[in-house]
Design a protein that fits this description.
By secondary structure, this protein is an all-alpha fold. Helices cover 72% and strands 0% of the residues.
């Protein structure tokens, strides 16, 4: 994402302020509540001003408008989620168990009502504002894919498992584990139970490791 779109102008907030100020977080939290409650199209800057408890001038000192607020909010949340989800232990004794726990964490997070609402909002505005979809993808799925590929590359270098193309292997693992549960919630079906989710992820992990057998 272009840093110029996400950083508040230094002259507007003071040279000594850090990027992630309390005021900026306050604005983003107000915007998050409004977007989730009203949707992107129906949300107004007046709504966000009231929810954040700041003046409209203060919001415009940090953000150029609703589009930038939404893009920054989505990008920040998805990037933080991806970094948490893909914190993988290279030295864990069982690669299968590490991947299974990753899959369960990821699908559980993605199928939460707030995450589903956020995805639907982005899908709804992507045709008119393609940069929104790009921001969500680059901050979330792309970051996750890169971090998982790095994990796979390290396992390959350690001689524990062979990957000719770690990035492709990462995409394949994520497709196997995420696609069906996400389709269910996006189409309004009941989400899978935690037991069913774990069985699905375990089966996907087993299939993945048949394609990429462990060494030794």
């Amino acid at each position: 994402m272009n840093d110029a779109l996400t950083d508040p102008p230094a002259e507007a907030i003071g040279e000594t302020d850090v990027l992630d100020t309390a005021k900026r977080r306050q604005i983003l939290e107000g915007a998050r509540r409004v977007f989730l409650e009203r949707g992107f199209e129906a949300a107004s800057m007046n709504d966000i001003t009231r929810a954040a408890g700041v003046s409209k001038g203060t919001i415009y000192a940090y953000f150029s408008g609703k589009d930038e607020l939404f893009e920054c909010l989505i990008g920040q949340e998805k990037r933080e989620q991806a970094e948490r989800m893909f914190d993988l232990d290279r030295n864990a004794p069982s690669i299968a168990a590490e991947l299974e726990e990753l899959g369960v964490r990821l699908v559980t997070a993605i199928t939460q009502p707030e995450s589903v609402a956020r995805m639907r909002m982005v899908v709804g505005v992507t045709q008119r504002l393609p940069e929104m979809g790009r921001a969500l993808y680059e901050a979330g799925p792309k970051v996750g894919n890169i971090r998982l590929a790095a994990y796979f590359a390290d396992l390959d270098a350690a001689g524990r498992i062979r990957f000719d193309d770690p990035m492709q292997a990462a995409r394949q693992f994520l497709d196997l584990t995420v696609s069906d549960p996400v389709r269910r919630v996006m189409f309004g079906l009941e989400p899978v139970s935690q037991d069913e989710l774990r069985r699905t992820v375990r089966a996907a992990t087993a299939m993945f490791l048949r394609a990429y057998p462990l060494r030794g």
